[in-house]
Design goal:
Blueprint: H1 16-41, H2 46-74, H3 103-127, H4 131-153, H5 163-193, H6 195-205, H7 208-233, H8 244-260, H9 271-296, H10 301-324
Helix pairs in contact: 1-2, 1-3, 2-4, 3-4, 5-7, 5-8, 5-9, 5-10, 6-7, 6-10, 7-8, 9-10
Length: about 325
């Protein structure tokens, strides 16, 4: 889990050439995503598709201006640098998932993309000492802000557009980014990753107190690791995901809870009773994870259940086989 800290660079460590390279690749990605949105919506929402087509064309224009500036300042060779190489960049949803997105979800995705792009250009402009570069980055920040307002008004005939509804959407989106996503990742990690050590210990020793101690150590250790990893790898400035400490707290606490759920039954002295209750708790945990994925992340319930329950069952079986062997 801590390996994620070593393979991404911090934005503050990038050179001006690398900042331009990152901006170029980001504009290319966003243009491709907007074209995918337009294709997805064209049959049912032609007006919205036209808007996304226009936004994609503008992103192409931004990319061309950035390339021209790079050629002037640094030459023809543009470093290969993408969002996933830099800490703090919120990962874009894979384009192949577009077919499963609703109109309201696409609208929210577009708002988030433009908000993040504006924040990036404002931060990038502060980093440069070259007047032409600062002007271009400032102009692009203003352009992304205009896109953000366009995205906020997008498909207003299909969704509520009053201030109260917008505030509710924004609050819900921020809640998911700051609390639900890191908490869900923690719950999944804590529930699944601790299955093998807890049940291996249980079946190897048939000692409930030893099993409880191992389960507690595994759960608390995983919680600390996940919490610090979440807090350290993204400061939230560029991604808009909120306070790193809030996200770290959500991830760490839920990781610990996920593991302790099936460790606590081993406070019961009877081995088989404790194990039966622990297995029942695991079943509830895995289905709860599937429900959260469906409720907040829009993952189809059956697919989420299959992934989580199957994965958990395999880890559980590994623990039992190792401990029973």
């Amino acid at each position: 889990m801590l390996s994620a800290l070593t393979n991404r660079r911090r934005f503050s460590d990038l050179s001006e050439q690398e900042v331009l390279a990152l901006a170029i690749s980001s504009e290319e990605d966003d243009g491709r995503i907007y074209r995918s949105y337009a294709q997805r919506l064209r049959a049912d929402y032609a007006a919205s598709a036209t808007i996304f087509d226009a936004m994609a064309v503008e992103e192409d224009g931004h990319r061309q201006r950035l390339i021209a500036l790079h050629q002037t300042r640094f030459g023809e060779v543009i470093p290969l640098l993408r969002r996933e190489h830099v800490a703090g960049f919120y990962a874009r949803r894979p384009v192949w998932l577009v077919e499963n997105l609703t109109l309201d979800t696409i609208r929210a995705e577009a708002e988030a993309m433009e908000r993040q792009a504006e924040a990036f250009y404002l931060k990038a402009a502060q980093r440069t000492t070259d007047a032409a570069t600062r002007k271009l980055l400032g102009d692009l920040a203003a352009a992304e802000a205009g896109h953000k307002r366009l995205a906020e008004d997008l498909v207003s005939t299909h969704v509520e557009s009053d201030a109260a509804a917008e505030e509710t959407r924004a609050a819900k989106r921020q809640f998911i980014l700051t609390w639900v996503q890191p908490g869900l990742a923690g719950l999944m990690d804590g529930s699944v990753s601790t299955l093998a050590p807890i049940f291996a210990t249980a079946f190897a020793t048939q000692d409930t107190w030893t099993t409880f101690l191992v389960g507690t150590a595994a759960s608390v250790g995983a919680g600390i690791s996940m919490g610090f990893t979440e807090a350290a790898h993204d400061d939230g400035v560029l991604s808009g995901r909120g306070s790193p400490w809030k996200r770290g707290l959500a991830s760490g606490v839920m990781t610990t809870i996920g593991g302790m759920g099936h460790a606590l039954p081993y406070l019961i002295g009877d081995f088989w009773l404790a194990t039966s209750i622990a297995i029942a708790v695991v079943f509830v945990e895995l289905w709860a994870i599937a429900w959260i994925q469906n409720r907040f992340m829009e993952t189809p319930f059956l697919r989420a259940a299959l992934q989580v329950v199957l994965g958990g069952a395999l880890v559980f079986a590994a623990g039992v086989l190792i401990g029973g062997g």
